Amino acid sequence: MTKASALTTGNNAKDNTIKADEAAHFGALAADWWDPTGSSAMLHRLNPVRLRFIRNAIDAHYGTDPALRRPLAGRGLLDVGCGAGLLCEPMARLGAAVTGVDAAPENIAAAKAHAAASGLDIDYRAGELSAQGLGQFDIVTSLEVIEHVADPAEFIMQLTEHLRPGGLLLMSTPNRTAASKLFLVEAAERLGQIPRGTHHWDQFLTPSELEQLLMKAGLRVAMMQGIGFTPSKGLHLSENTALNYILSATAKTA
Length: 254
Known about the structure:
Blueprint: H1 20-27, H2 41-62, E1 76-80, H3 88-93, E2 97-102, H4 105-117, E3 123-126, E4 137-143, H5 152-161, E5 163-174, H6 178-190, H7 207-216, E6 219-230, E7 234-238, E8 244-251
Parallel strand pairs: 1-2, 1-4, 2-3, 4-5
Antiparallel strand pairs: 5-8, 6-7, 6-8
């Protein structure tokens, strides 16, 4: 399951934090990012499932009515590793003031063009998260990103630094299991469902590993669900986290 994010973190969070090969890989996919039958087809199928979880997490955290059309009105949202804006746009439609950051300039160019054509005002930035001079946000999202970073602990600290006290963090990532290696790496990439070279299985984090990193950053996991697949249901939220999982975490109040 793909996500264009080459944001990485090293020993110095402000220098050499982007992997050039990751940025090049995902930047090369920018031209057909919004084509549901193109190289990001799997992401288009995944996005509605993730959005369902995100909406549930928002309503649970802020106590908003599930029927409310713009539950994020008046709130700021930062999407880190935003690609060409596949998550940013629906978040803007939910009322959020959205900022998207991605390592690949090609992705940001595609995101800006699509947002303009859609009549959406989204603040897109290319490059290092730490170099953008951004403040804190009510919600920070980073989906299918952390498996592409060099230092997951430092990356989470950067996400946390941009989260307001009492804010909500949303993340998704593949799990490091035999099943994910077989289906997400070997089968999906070899069969052309995901571009070759997208996934590096040894960089996947298990739910317990990610939860430990979040705890060290002062966050508490509030909700977690697996994203599973069956021929009858397709991609769907599940209690089975063997392939992929999505979670929400909360920051301490001031």
